[in-house]
Specification:
Helix content: 25-40%
CATH class of the largest domain: Alpha Beta
Structural class: alpha+beta
Distance between the termini: 42 Å
CATH superfamily of the largest domain: Bira Bifunctional Protein, Domain 2
Strand order of the largest sheet: 1-5-6-11-10-9-7-8
Shape: elongated
Length: about 425
RNA sequence: GUGAUUGUAGCUCAGUUGGUUAGAGCGCCAGGUUGUGGCCCUGGAGGUCGGGGGUUCGAGCCCCCUCAUUCACCCCA
């Protein structure tokens, strides 16, 4: 056991895997841009109250999962961001973004922190990308956000994802439904588990989320949310579904989908991957018209957004073998030095090549030729370029094609021309 | 926070009812080829068997504690 190791629930990402992340990030950038979303970057920590107000004090995230700290005894409590939406909304309100234009379409990528017990698909530091559409939450806006999310998945080649969707109703609907639920569950309070008992008072909707087998029958008999939706809410939901059908986005209506964050209203959705194990939600989101007011905005800011877990996305892609196309770029030429007296000259060669944008590598440890060649082979260089006594006296350099083992002697000019062409040719490949 | 699981070389793992100097494959380094890689052959480095305590003549194997891992619950991305 090494003295120092990564903190529980965190991990290192090594170069081979970084290439995969960059590939996914590139697709996110491209798709978000196509849909007219611009990237926003916000602080990694905020005042704790922001999350307490924004996410909701009854949620597990706020209740037991936040990394909270106090910079000094008199300082205000700070918290590492456990999600992005509250911070993005805070940034929008603070900078009065909506005054400059009525609608803002923002996307983000970044690390989040939640103090949960790690397991497959769950870490204490993890990454999400997501989008927030501020200023409108019309069915068209909701559909736009869902479409963007699904398009990212499609562009990456993901298969067998399941989109579930539900309407939670507006504030009035939820209030009426909440009362109905409390009336229904109260007589059974002694049957409920501790968590559900607590929710009975604070947030009875979430009792429906429980997977406790003992409660399933009771939950099945509970009043249905959709029976309490107003005509306007139903029509709003139907319109969202209409848009999705029009775009041939497959979905399942799931009346039990509630989602854990307090701020959602009306449409809520979640995407799951069958490849993931117990933690199978790869992305989710919904409408949150009330959040801005909750955070002190003087005006209403209707909004809708989604977030996707990067690690879970990458895991699913791995399982579906979607990374074959992402190969690390090997150096084109490896400069091999015959004897150490020629090392300085060889380094000059390396500079010449690199200045010509030719990817070049050289041994910096003064190792034997055999070792240098082995290294060239190991890193899959295309060519070995020899620098020895002969080259120095004749001005002709030996260039060996490591795939074919063919070797030719060239002037420096011819060398630059040939390798320059090869480099250009390589760049054309995906 | 609860439950279970697993900790032996850089990696993947063997290690027989507790019994001499703890092994293999891959990887790494070097030599076989003092101007040339891959394949092959030979050799080498690398382990306080997660840590601590206990039982025993003797512990990688048994017992206790502890740390860490993984998976699941809860919940979420």
């Amino acid at each position: 056991m090494p003295q120092y190791q990564a903190v529980k629930g965190t991990r290192d990402i090594f170069p081979e895997e970084v290439a995969r992340w960059k590939y996914v990030e590139g697709v996110v950038d491209a798709q978000a841009s196509l849909y007219g979303f611009s990237e926003i970057r916000i602080p990694v920590f905020e005042y704790t109250e922001l999350f307490q107000r924004g996410i909701g004090s009854t949620t597990d995230i706020v209740g037991k999962e936040m990394f909270t700290f106090q910079p000094d005894p008199k300082g205000r409590s700070l918290t590492l961001r456990p999600e992005m939406t509250a911070g993005v909304m805070r940034a929008a309100i603070q900078n009065n973004l909506l005054a400059s234009a009525p609608v803002h379409k923002l996307y983000y990528m970044g690390e989040l922190f939640r103090k949960e017990r790690p397991q497959a698909g769950r870490q204490r530091q993890f990454s999400q990308f997501g989008a927030e559409l501020l200023g409108v939450s019309s069915p068209a806006a909701v559909a736009e956000v869902i479409t963007l999310m699904m398009e990212v998945f499609r562009s990456l080649g993901l298969q067998r994802l399941k989109l579930r969707i539900n309407s939670l109703g507006d504030a009035d609907d939820r209030l009426r439904y909440r009362v109905a639920l409390q009336n229904y569950f109260s007589p059974f309070a002694d049957i409920l588990d501790d968590a559900s008992k607590e929710r009975l008072e604070k947030n009875p909707l979430r009792i429906l989320d429980s997977k406790n087998p003992a409660l399933q029958e009771l939950i099945a008999g509970a009043p249905k949310l959709y029976e309490y939706l107003s005509e306007a809410s139903v029509q709003d939901f139907e319109k969202v579904l209409f848009y999705l059908k029009e775009r041939t986005i497959a979905f399942d209506i799931d009346h039990r989908l509630v989602r854990g964050l307090d701020y959602y209203c009306n449409t809520a959705f979640e995407v799951t991957s069958s490849e993931l194990g117990a933690q199978d939600a790869i992305g989710g989101g919904g409408r949150y018209d009330g959040l801005a007011r909750e955070l002190g905005s003087s005006t209403d800011v209707p909004a809708v957004g989604f977030a996707v877990g990067m690690e879970r996305l990458l895991m699913t892609m791995e399982k579906q073998a979607l990374f074959d196309v992402v190969a690390p770029q090997a150096p084109l030429v490896y400069v091999v030095v015959q004897q150490q007296e020629l090392a300085d000259h060889a380094l000059q060669m390396v500079c010449r090549l690199r200045n010509a944008s030719i990817k070049t590598e050289i041994d910096l440890a003064a190792r034997s030729m055999k070792a240098q060649m082995r290294e060239a082979n190991r890193i899959k260089a295309s060519y070995a370029l020899f620098v020895g006594a002969t080259e120095l006296t004749t001005g002709l350099y030996s260039l060996k094609n490591l795939a074919t083992s063919e070797q030719t002697m060239l002037t420096l000019e011819a060398l630059l021309e040939l390798l320059g062409e090869s480099a250009a040719g390589m760049q054309l490949q995906p």
